[in-house]
UniProtKB/TrEMBL annotation:
<dbReference type="InterPro" id="IPR005856">
    <property type="entry name" value="Cys_synth"/>
</dbReference>
<feature type="binding site">
    <location>
        <position position="74"/>
    </location>
    <ligand>
        <name>pyridoxal 5'-phosphate</name>
    </ligand>
</feature>
<protein>
    <recommendedName>
        <fullName>Cysteine synthase</fullName>
        <ecNumber>2.5.1.47</ecNumber>
    </recommendedName>
</protein>
<keyword id="KW-0663">Pyridoxal phosphate</keyword>
<feature type="binding site">
    <location>
        <position position="258"/>
    </location>
    <ligand>
        <name>pyridoxal 5'-phosphate</name>
    </ligand>
</feature>
<feature type="domain" description="Tryptophan synthase beta chain-like PALP">
    <location>
        <begin position="8"/>
        <end position="284"/>
    </location>
</feature>
<feature type="modified residue" description="N6-(pyridoxal phosphate)lysine">
    <location>
        <position position="44"/>
    </location>
</feature>
<feature type="binding site">
    <location>
        <begin position="177"/>
        <end position="181"/>
    </location>
    <ligand>
        <name>pyridoxal 5'-phosphate</name>
    </ligand>
</feature>
<dbReference type="InterPro" id="IPR036052">
    <property type="entry name" value="TrpB-like_PALP_sf"/>
</dbReference>
<dbReference type="InterPro" id="IPR001926">
    <property type="entry name" value="TrpB-like_PALP"/>
</dbReference>
<dbReference type="InterPro" id="IPR005858">
    <property type="entry name" value="CysM"/>
</dbReference>
<keyword id="KW-0028">Amino-acid biosynthesis</keyword>
<keyword id="KW-0808">Transferase</keyword>
<dbReference type="GO" id="GO:0006535">
    <property type="term" value="P:cysteine biosynthetic process from serine"/>
</dbReference>
<dbReference type="InterPro" id="IPR001216">
    <property type="entry name" value="P-phosphate_BS"/>
</dbReference>
<comment type="similarity">
    <text>Belongs to the cysteine synthase/cystathionine beta-synthase family.</text>
</comment>
<dbReference type="Pfam" id="PF00291">
    <property type="entry name" value="PALP"/>
</dbReference>
Length: 296
């Protein structure tokens, strides 16, 4: 048999695994969508491919051209991988306190990585991306305001969850970063069944959780529509960390802290209902956090 598929053909169609043992409640099922199984190791492969591919189709960027994007990690890795395979140059800007694994992975895929001071956070990285767009003529993807971000999940993640739960899903839970995942999946699932409850995980005011943000008003992603999220549950850094460790030990799912935040909120949802099918997003793999204190 001759195989002609590339890495890009294996983005999406990730496993949905049963983690109902974490709930231990008759009538309530908990499933985890393992986005770390994407080629680039995270849920961000989906929007990264869709944003670059659609930009090429429209002629916003040409092959051999240069894209620029601010990232906290996973989107940057996905963009570095996919841009190189689609013959586009990639400049990524991220805070200096990002884990070493992330920076090295982006560079391994061929991207130029610029590190901004940690104290100005991802907001400072976003500001520099706009500056480089204006000064150097780079094409800014702007994952925080690009409709091709959430549409990737409308086209793929939502339909996969609907199909793999045999159309039985009652609650969907996702960490909120760029909010592309929750916007796209919510839009799709609500079209199928308006009664499905959409839940967003958000850090409390005293917590820093990689991949989950509570944005200042001026930095809220432009496509975020609060009406598409039925409930927002806040999670502490400590609870996200403990839940991430539980996922590895009790379910065999090795993930990052944003996934722990997502599942913590999913467990809160499970506690509040007597029956239902809850699906939570596992955003990435835990191996890109080994240099952090997450698993200590």
């Amino acid at each position: 048999m001759v195989y002609d598929k590339t890495v890009l053909d294996y983005i999406g169609n990730t496993p949905l695994v049963d983690a109902s043992q974490l709930v231990a409640k008759d009538g309530v099922k908990l499933f985890l969508k393992l986005e770390g199984n994407n080629p680039g190791g995270s849920v961000k492969d989906r929007p990264a491919f869709n944003m670059i591919n659609e930009a090429l189709k429209r002629g916003d960027v040409k092959k051999g051209g240069t894209l620029v994007e601010a990232t906290s990690g996973n989107t940057g890795i996905a963009l570095a991988l996919i841009a190189n395979l689609l013959d586009v140059n990639m400049v990524l800007i991220m805070p200096k306190n990002s884990t070493e694994e992330r920076v090295k992975t982006m560079r391994a895929y061929g991207a130029e990585v610029i590190l901004t001071p940690a104290d100005i956070g991802i907001e400072g990285s976003r500001d520099l991306a706009f500056k480089l767009r204006d000064e150097k003529g780079y094409v800014l993807l702007n994952q925080f305001g690009n409709d091709d971000n959430w549409k990737a999940h409308y086209k793929t993640t939502g339909p996969e969850i609907w199909k793999d739960t045999n159309e039985k899903i009652t609650h969907f839970v996702s960490a909120m970063g760029t909010t592309g995942t929750i916007m796209g999946v919510s839009t799709y699932l609500k079209e199928k069944n308006k009664a499905i409850t959409i839940v967003g995980a958000q850090p409390d005011d005293n917590s820093r959780i990689p991949g989950i943000r509570k944005w200042p008003e001026e930095y809220i992603p432009k496509f975020f529509d609060r009406s598409k999220v039925d409930k927002i549950i806040e999670v502490t850094e400590a609870d996200a960390k403990v839940t991430t460790q539980r996922l590895a030990k009790e379910v065999g799912v090795f993930a990052g802290m944003s996934s722990g935040g997502s599942v913590f909120c999913a467990l809160k949802v499970a506690e509040s209902i007597n029956e239902g099918v809850v699906v939570a997003i596992i955003c990435d793999r835990g191996d890109r956090y080994l240099s952090s204190t997450l698993f200590e």
